[in-house]
Each structure stands twice: as structure tokens, then as C-alpha cells.
Amino acid sequence: MLNRIFIIVLILCFMAGGYVAYTAVTLPNVRETLEKGIEPSQTSQILADDHSVIMSYGMFQHKPVPLAQMPHALINALIATEDRRFYEHHGIDPVGTMRALVEDIIHHGAYEGGSTITQQLARNIFLSNERSLQRKVKEALLAIKLEQDLTKDQILDLYLNNVYFGEGAYGVGAASNIYFGKPPDQLDTAECALLAGLPQAPSLYNPFANPDLAIKRRNEVLQKMVEDHKLSASAAKRLSKEHLHLNPLGQSSASADKAPFFNHYVIQRALSLLDMDEQTFWQEGLKVYTTLDPRAQYYADTSVRGLSRAFGRTGKKQQAALLSLGSNGGIIAYVGGKDYSISQYDRVYQAHRQAGSLFKAFVYTTALQQGMTPVTVYKDAPITFGNWSPQNFEKNHEGYMTLARALMESNNIVAVKVTRDLTPQAVIATAQKMGIQSPMTPELPLALGATDVTLKEMTTAFSILSNKGVYVEPYAIEKIVDREGRVLYQHQPQQHVVLKRTVRDTMVEMMQGVVHFG
After folding, report:
1. Is the Cβ–Cβ distance between 273 and 489 less than 8 Å?
2. Could you please report the per-residue DSSP string of 337-381?
3. Structural contact between residues 397 and 347, judged by C-beta atoms closer than 8 angstroms
4. C-alpha angle 43-330-465 in degrees, rounded to nearest 5
5. Mean pLDDT lowest for which of 37-51, 394-408, 488-502?
6. Strands 45-47 and 287-290
């Protein structure tokens, strides 16, 4: 029995050795690549439905900054964050890998990466971020080769001058200029910590787009520096309270960004679809074909700003958003806020606001589904449910009225009574079928929109009424192709009938009454 096990183990070791040997033969030539110089090929583009470019980055890579001219705080922050045993291992760090695995298990997910700085350099320069065993083996072998051919300082120099920091910035020289408007040797410790935290997820921790997350990540890096004995706890505490002082012109560095909220949404979707990190996305020379209509987007931007001024909503904290869907679910216009340069918070899918009287559409749709008609009569009269007495907007009562008139006048009392008779659970079921995914409490105030929803959810739900009762999943990306023109992703429509045609047609007629007579 032992002999058989020994033979099996021996065969497996032989096969593994053969696989590693074969992979080693297919490795790129390290010396040749380094001698030629490293040029990140960033040519990916996001295109509108007419194939015009709506976003692409210029390639921002300053001349290499010698390691001697980089702040010690930056190097310390990077090592403490990415590879604490950098000066002890020879390209691969089993201890660091095990520590990362334990952290991932504790936090139930990918909390900490296990790759060394050398492995990351090997991946960034020579490989893609494809998730495969062969890529991991190549990465490990290249890391060992790099450690044999280069000093630790040379590895750090290459890494810091080529890693992607977001906003089109490759290397610390470009990143320092775009984010802070100054060269690396003028960065303070807090700024160094912020930059050191970016490579893990440049888009997520982008201080222009997500300042709160960027500060949180910066403070995590400061704490790691304390744990690595590169910073005192008192200094970390003081620095963690510092505000961001960003370069006001930094965000204008993108060579094209004609629909910033939409483009950010598309990028996140593309990264998920391709299982790719942001640096690889921009370096792969991809073309992302989207559903955006540039003409509709122009009118959407103009309308949001114009209506905000018309209604006196000119303050920075007074915001607006707009989402427009085509009959096939394609997003044709997308405005997440009045000015992306002032606030990157996307009010299309991130912001939850009370639905208000819009929610009555779900109440009356449910009523029609359960056999009521536009001429079903309810009495608008005072009513109390426990400690709650709903009121109409004008605080008056008009007696008996049809459902059509109740919707036309946005009557609160009748909407609550109808919801009582249908049950809040039935109304919730209709809202969920129509696309509302946010939590809803099965209580009577639900009828008046006392539930928080997103603009994306409400637009999706109402599009069913304009789409003959058919639910179509909203989407932004038609297809993604690589630099050779091969299709990596093609959208497949997802749709199904939610409302009977008679219910839909009747509901639309009732809603037309709101426009014409309400």
C-alpha cells in the first residue's frame, strides 16, 4: 500500500515538474524586455452607440523618478501595505501568502493579496491578469528570475515607475502630479500613504471620485506602517485626521470623458464582466461599445442643469439625476449629478430617496391585477390606523371618487384604503416584479411612498408601462472587443412579461389622466 502511494506521489511530482519546466520554456525574455524599456500600451476606449469615443485616457507616464528621489515614507508605505517581507524573500513569500490566506478566511473574502511586489511587477510588465494556474506559475517563475537579475532597489524602482495609480497615471511621477500637482519628493507622509493604497483598486479608492473611501484606505495604510514599525501610533493618529488637498486640475487629465457618471458605471460593469483589474483594462486596447446616445446625453445634461436653475436648485448640496432607457433596456442618457467635478456620488444607482407619490403606480397596478377597474369607487374621508391618520396634501376631503380620479389627483386617503384592502404584501410583490429591489416594509404608509428606492429601480419599473408590460433588464454595454477585434462579451437581452396587456393599457390610460387633468 505504501509503495503504491509513493509511486503515485512520485508520478504527481514528475508531472508537476514537467509542467513547471514546460512553462519556464515559454516565459518571455526578461533581460530583452527590460533593455528595450517598458511602455504601457494604454489604448482602451469607451464608445457611444454611434461609435464616437466618449472616454479614453491619454497615457500619463512621466520620466522615471529615481528611487533616491522618492520619499522614504512612500517606500515604507508601499512595503508595509503590499509586501512586508520584501527584503527577506526571493520573489515568492510563503509566509506572506499564508498570512494573506488567514486574513481572507477571517474576513470571508479577498481581504489581503498574497502576491509579493516582485510578483506584481512580473505580472504588470510581462503578463496579463488572467486568472489561471499557468499565469500564476509564470508569475512565480518570473518573480524568481527578476530577483536573480535585479537588486531589491531596482525592483522597487521599476514597480513604482510603472504601476497603475488610476486616472490614466502610470508610475508615481504621473500619479503625484495628477492627484497632488507636485513631484514625488514634495509629498508628505499622508499623501504617500494615499498613493501607496491606490494600486490595489485605483478606481475604488480614487480620491476624486470616492474621497471618503480614499481617506479610509489611506488610514489603513498608515496603520500598516505602524504595525511595520515605520511610523509611530501618535503620528498615524494625527495624520489620519488630515483632509485631502487634491490638485484641482487633476481630473481634467482625461483626454475624453463626455459622460463621466455613465463611463464610471460602464467601467465597473466591464471589470466585472471580464474579471479584470483596472490597470489591465486600460492596457489591453479594448473597445467597449455602449448604448449611450450622445445627442440624448447632451440634452439630458442641459436639462438637469437648466431645471436646477429654474427651480432655484443652485447650491452644491442640491442635486438632480436623470436616467433614460430605450425600449430594449439600453441606457441612452445617464446623469448622476449636476457636476461630476464637484461630486462623483452617482445618484442614479447609489442614492436611495423616498419614492413619494410615484409609488401609487404600484398600488393601482396591483388593484387592476386583482380585478378592480378605473371606475371602482372609494370614499375620501378621514380615517385612522392605530396612531396614524393619513392626510391629503391639501388637508381636505372630497367624498366618493373613482380610482382613476384618485390617481389623477394623487389622493392619499384612497391610496391607503386600496392598499389596506389589497394588503401591503400584494403591493410589494407587484413592485418587486417590476424591478424594485430595495427593502420595503409591509405597512400602510408604503402606499404614500414611505420607502427608499433608487432612480435606476424606479426608471426600470416605469419602463414596463411604456414597454407593453414587458420587463427588460437595463444595460449599458453592447459588446467588448479586444485589440484584434475578437468579441470578448456580447450582450444577451433579458426580458419577460410582467403585466398583462390589458392591465398595462388601463394603467397607462389612468396615468395619462394625471398629465391631462391632474
Report:
1. yes
2. SS-TTT----TTTT--EE-GGGGHHHHHHHHHHTT--TT-EEEE-
3. no
4. 165
5. 37-51
6. parallel
